[in-house]
Amino acid sequence: MPDQDINFYDYHPSMAAAAIFTVLFAISTVLHCVQSIQKRAWFMTPFIIGGFFETVGYIGRISSSNDPHARTPFILQTLLILLAPALFAASIYMVLGRIILLTDGESYSLIRRTWLTKIFVASDVLSFLLQCGGGGIMASNQTDPSKVKLGQNIILVGLFAQLAVFAFFVVVACLFQIRGRAHFQTLPASVAWRKHLHVLYATSILILIRSLFRIIEYIMGNDSYLLRHEVFVYVFDALLMLLAMIMVNLVHPGDIATMLKKKSHVGNGFELRDSELISKR
């Protein structure tokens, strides 16, 4: 069946909504690039790539609003918007490792810091590959219901893996804070670890909600109420991921790298003057 005979959506994609989120994601992504370069926070690279995925994905939706029958924009937006949160997660996993290092709190972590990032990032890569493979199968075979179903099932496996690993990650972060609460009270106020952990919690919850939405969406199938109404994509995916990006803009993890460098210059402990780090709080 020729592409011009296929409407890849159960609605006409909104040009205005796609354009607004394209601009907002682009602004946040460019700001993340500038912040990460200035702070030499190279561990934020996956997060930045995720921002580019979101931006280009919504450009694809703009193109789809002009021609809902075009295959390439549909595949582009399906894959990039689906995969972006896995890239956000990769950087968030690395943030916790740096918070543990900053606070000398490895003894309070359920998983050793040296293994924590490796375990969670490896799990994230597996989830990413599953979603990528499933999304590719589903998006490129819209006229074959069996392949669409196969693609959806593979995506679901990837999303369930992402949800389970991320939920466990939040548990690890919470236990780290609870177990080390007495130790953390001895740290100087200028070591601003707490706000970064709170942003980590907030962004993690947003990604968890988004992943749960996607799981429900794919379980309900192609004829579901969620897939037939575009508003849900923007409320439970676009908006949540944009909020996650903005929160990380406002409390950028690159400040942790700056504090770690200052800490290394004074040797063991936290013999730092408040005036040196007060701007990082």
Automatic annotation (TrEMBL):
Q: Is Membrane set as a keyword in this record?
A: yes
Q: Where in the cell is it found?
A: Membrane
What residue ranges are annotated as transmembrane? 15-34, 41-62, 74-96, 116-139, 154-178, 199-219, 231-252
Q: What keywords are assigned to this protein?
A: Membrane, Transmembrane, Transmembrane helix
| Membrane topology per record | Multi-pass membrane protein
What Gene Ontology cellular component terms go with this record? membrane
Any one Pfam family here would be RTA1
**Main localization category:** membrane
Instruction: Give the taxonomic lineage as stored in the record.
Output: Eukaryota, Fungi, Dikarya, Ascomycota, Pezizomycotina
Q: Does the keyword Protein biosynthesis apply?
A: no
Please report the name of this protein according to its UniProt entry.
RTA1-domain-containing protein
